[in-house]
Amino acid sequence: MTTLTRADWEQRAQQLKIEGRAFINGEYTAAVSGATFECLSPVDGRLLAQIASCDEADANRAVENARATFASGVWSRLAPAKRKATMIRFAGLLKQNVEELALLETLDMGKPISDSLNIDVPGAAQALSWNGEAIDKIYDEVAATPHDQLGLVTREPVGVVAAIVPWNFPLLMACWKLGPALATGNSVVLKPSEKSPLTAIRIAQLAIEAGIPAGVLNVLPGYGHTVGKALALHMDVDTLVFTGSTKIAKQLMIYAGESNMKRVWLEAGGKSPNIVFADAPDLNAAAESAASAIAFNQGEVCTAGSRLLVERSIKDKFLPLVLEALKAWKPGNPLDPATTVGALVDTQQMNTVLSYIDAGHSDGAKLLVGGKRILEETGGTYVEPTIFDGVTNAMKIAQEEIFGPVLSVITFDSTEEAINIANDTPYGLAAGVWTADISKAHLTAKALRAGSVWVNQYDGGDMTAPFGGFKQSGNGRDKSLHALDKYTELKATWIKL
């Protein structure tokens, strides 16, 4: 465990050499147009680097190289055990460079350095190694056939995968895609968000060092409406995987239909309910979890527990516990290891969050705590964790994904009412249930239209559990062996003996 102080991290930040170019066919390269954009840190507004602004020409070049590499078989036909060994080396290089990657992540996105160091980078490395470990332990099938027939069911890599990943967990979300996509033998073109591209650009070189052949992993920084759109419309991209907003997810489905009917797998938004029943086994634990569920990662989490549903009989007892627990989540400089809440990713997102706080006031919700921008003198983008009481599920702050530390408290009187409120949004990504009644826990979990339901905790699970949503939270699953389905095609081979 590192013992670096804020001063140490600040010094390293000043000395850090940041790569901002695209990575195509094993080499860093400027965008074909030569265009760049500024990468500003939300920590204090400092200029971090000029980043290559890729567009259609770069997408064409990267996809062409990815296709040629895939067709060559240098990776796609490599023995699974050898791909496994390379993936594990790749994961090991992330761990060896954990401090550099954590610093890049924090400077770029604004999250606390302790989270980058202890959660994001280790989680990314695990996603690579876990999928690598799995790939030589998955067997194909032999169909039940007559004695003079042989039916084989085999999985093959889909080919060229375009992965468009978000800015809130830049490295982790990239590796949730790269792990299964690379392990199954595909070539990948990765487009990180223009808001946080630095770690994706950096790990491209680490992939080469690990032994992944040039052309297998390409990284194209740039904007969604330019290079992102070009990848989504590209006739030689076989599969498109995405994590981000529901609005963009819908647009990507249209692009897929307008082009080559590429497979599209989408992990989109959420407005997750965290339901606390009167018989919750530990109200203090539930309160601490409710606070962390909205304040962790500045609330910039697709599964954030942004709707706290509290049974009326315990509300007066429970809410003070939540307010007390929230005191531990105070925005501060992300390079301070003691900081628990960092900066929002940029000014645009900060203003979006503040506009939702204004909407809460306008709709008649009662502000209990927070609600303001703070630390403005730093040049960074910080907003206090905020709680509104007296929220109805029809209010804007209860229906729309805010992607910031804004919690809506909603009261209910019965299990049926809680379930109805919980399901009454366009989303279905995650939910929490707090009860000591095992039957109520199971029946409520079954009734919730959500891809993940956590009982007497919030945000449980690991790489063995699938992650994804119902309804407009998307389709397909990240993590677990189920994720491999997105990156492979089933082939039936029927042989007359």
From TrEMBL:
PANTHER family: ALDEHYDE DEHYDROGENASE-RELATED. Belongs to the aldehyde dehydrogenase family. InterPro entries: Ald_DH/histidinol_DH (IPR016161), Ald_DH_C (IPR016163), Ald_DH_CS_CYS (IPR016160), Ald_DH_CS_GLU (IPR029510), Ald_DH_N (IPR016162), Aldehyde_DH_dom (IPR015590). CDD domains: ALDH_GABALDH-PuuC. The active site is at residue 267. This is Aldehyde dehydrogenase PuuC. Pfam families: Aldedh. It comes from the Bacteria. The keyword Oxidoreductase applies. One of its GO terms (molecular function) is aldehyde dehydrogenase [NAD(P)+] activity. Keywords: Oxidoreductase. It comes from Pseudomonas wadenswilerensis. Its EC number is 1.2.1.5. Residues 33-492 form the Aldehyde dehydrogenase domain.
